[in-house]
């Protein structure tokens, strides 16, 4: 007997556009890592017999909904954005980046801002931070960067020398370092910070027309931050301050909310814009590409069980739905693989079956077995494709949108290497008080660095962004800006 003919989906419930051909850069080009369906199939297959699991960093989360407030169907065919007033359930997880599970919530650190939308076309994840940029722009540097943020393998202590050595040798980090060391480096609560998708993504409409976009979640509670002294006091008095604040607010009916906006860039502008629009260490000027409202996110329900919901929640920028595609952002391209692979290792190859991650739509695919398979495992249905028995098949109209590529396969950097203009612009926008606190935070963080050459190299970056910036940091450290930097 033939099975009912169903649409083939990914493990997160989104329809598959092509299950016969992997994505390549042209007819004879190499296979692309952005083919998240291919990566998911191969990685799942590799783990069907050997389960792995690790612990995840500390964070807090909540349930809520997203409601569309503006018609943007001219730009995207994503179903959950298809009409004003449409509501989609969601789960959000906030976290510190470098801290361990028992670390204090109020440490100076970027905050993770990950949203899972349970849409009617499968799950869609926006996996960002509370900053619009990041420290690096190529995923090949990510393991090294995170090593510097974690504990020294010899001493098992945090290592400021490693942190500043890496940053001073990676000048693209300067923009994010400036944000981290500013007042924005320690949010007062999860509720009082913005969220960003950070990367550039592509929206595609029903006609196949595309635009580049960036996501901005603006907190409706207003931005509030903590001074270093208050943050240190709270770290000792209540290391779970942010998690507790979020739970108490929702428990008391003070539901936090954010307004989602996008910046929209015509595809052709990517070739002429003064900064590379796919470089995650840069922002797009809102004067050039104004914020356009999309909808409202509201958090109105606390988790019932921290481990089952917050700890086991898994997010990946590769969890996509039709109408939302990726860009050639090198950091994003690496994350498309790394995040899903981390979840298969930490939670298990069947993490998408857990209630917190399970889509609210039917899931039909040919993945079988693996550790902790706790559903019917496909029963006695056909377990391969293509087949002659009416199993799920692809939906061609759900294929990712195309974009042209050209050039020679090589390990190359971005064409644009201006790491100083935007960091300098940010510094010059600060008030005198904000500048003073920024300098104090940087000086305090750099004083333990063991090698003077590292301090001088980093001072040079600050000076190139703005001479006042570099001179004040140098003075705070009892050093001079190197003459070779001044004379350039």
UniProtKB/TrEMBL annotation:
Annotated region described as Disordered, given as residue ranges: 1-20, 374-398
Cofactor(s) needed by this chain: heme
Record keywords, A-Z: Heme, Hydrogen peroxide, Iron, Metal-binding, Oxidoreductase, Peroxidase
Active-site residues annotated for this sequence: 56, 129
Pfam families: Catalase, Catalase-rel
Top EC class of this enzyme: oxidoreductase
Superkingdom to which the source organism belongs: Bacteria
EC number: 1.11.1.6
Domain Catalase core as annotated: residue spans: 9-393
GO-annotated molecular function: catalase activity; heme binding; metal ion binding
Keyword flag Heme: yes
Reactions performed catalytically: 2 H2O2 = O2 + 2 H2O
Keyword Oxidoreductase: yes
Ranges of biased composition (kind: Polar residues): 7-20
GO biological process: hydrogen peroxide catabolic process; response to hydrogen peroxide
One Gene Ontology term, aspect cellular component: cytoplasm
CDD domains in the cross-refs: catalase_clade_3 (cd08156)
InterPro entries: Catalase (IPR018028), Catalase_3 (IPR040333), Catalase_AS (IPR024708), Catalase_clade1/3 (IPR024711), Catalase_core (IPR011614), Catalase_haem_BS (IPR002226), Catalase_immune_responsive (IPR010582), Catalase_sf (IPR020835)
Gene3D superfamilies: Catalase core domain
UniProt-annotated binding residues for heme: 339
Family per record: Belongs to the catalase family.
PANTHER family: CATALASE
Protein name: Catalase
Organism of provenance: Terrilactibacillus tamarindi
Lineage of producing organism: Bacteria, Bacillati, Bacillota, Bacilli, Bacillales
């Amino acid at each position: 007997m033939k099975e009912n003919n169903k649409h083939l989906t990914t493990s997160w419930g989104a329809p598959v556009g092509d299950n016969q051909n992997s994505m390549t850069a042209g007819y004879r080009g190499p296979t692309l890592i952005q083919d998240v369906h291919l990566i998911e199939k191969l990685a799942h297959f590799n783990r069907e017999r050997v389960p792995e699991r690790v612990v995840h960093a500390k964070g807090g989360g909540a349930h809520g909904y997203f409601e569309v407030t503006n018609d943007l169907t001219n730009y995207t065919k994503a179903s959950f954005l298809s009409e004003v007033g449409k509501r989609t359930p969601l789960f959000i997880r906030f976290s510190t980046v470098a801290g361990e599970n028992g670390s204090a919530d109020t440490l100076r650190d970027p905050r993770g801002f990950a949203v899972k939308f349970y849409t009617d076309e499968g799950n869609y994840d926006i996996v960002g931070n509370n900053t619009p940029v990041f420290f690096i722009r190529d995923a090949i540097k990510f393991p090294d960067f995170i090593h510097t943020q974690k504990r020294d393998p010899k001493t098992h202590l945090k290592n400021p020398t490693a942190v500043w050595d890496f940053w001073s040798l990676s000048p693209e980090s300067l923009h994010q370092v400036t944000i981290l060391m500013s007042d924005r480096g320690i949010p007062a609560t999860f509720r009082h910070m913005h969220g960003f998708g950070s990367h550039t993504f592509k929206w595609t409409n029903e006609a196949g027309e595309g635009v580049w976009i960036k996501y901005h979640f603006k907190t409706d509670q207003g931005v509030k931050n903590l001074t270093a002294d208050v943050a240190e006091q709270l770290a000792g008095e209540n290391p779970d301050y942010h998690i507790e604040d979020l739970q108490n607010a929702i428990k008391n009916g003070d539901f936090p909310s954010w307004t989602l906006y996008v910046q929209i860039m015509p595809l052709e502008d990517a070739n002429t814009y003064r900064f590379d629009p796919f470089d995650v260490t840069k922002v797009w000027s809102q004067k050039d590409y104004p914020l356009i409202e999309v909808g409202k996110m509201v958090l109105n329900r606390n988790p019932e069980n921290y481990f089952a919901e917050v700890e086991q929640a898994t997010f990946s920028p590769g969890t996509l739905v039709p109408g939302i595609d990726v860009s050639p952002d090198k950091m994003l391209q690496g994350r498309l693989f790394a995040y899903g692979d981390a979840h298969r290792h930490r939670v298990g190859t069947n993490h998408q079956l857990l209630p917190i991650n399970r889509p609210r739509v039917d899931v039909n695919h040919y993945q079988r077995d693996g550790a902790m398979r706790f559903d019917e495992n496909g029963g006695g249905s056909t377990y391969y494709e293509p087949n002659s028995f009416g199993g799920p098949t692809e939906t061609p109209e759900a294929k990712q949108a195309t974009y042209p590529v050209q050039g020679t396969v090589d390990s190359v950097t971005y064409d644009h290497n201006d790491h100083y203009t935007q960091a300098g612009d940010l510094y010059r926008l600060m008030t005198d008080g904000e500048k003073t606190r920024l300098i104090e935070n940087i000086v305090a963080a750099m004083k333990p660095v063991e090698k003077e050459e590292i301090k001088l190299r980093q001072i040079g970056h600050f000076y190139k962004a703005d001479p006042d910036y570099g001179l004040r940091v140098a003075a705070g450290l009892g050093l001079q800006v190197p003459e070779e930097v001044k004379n350039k």
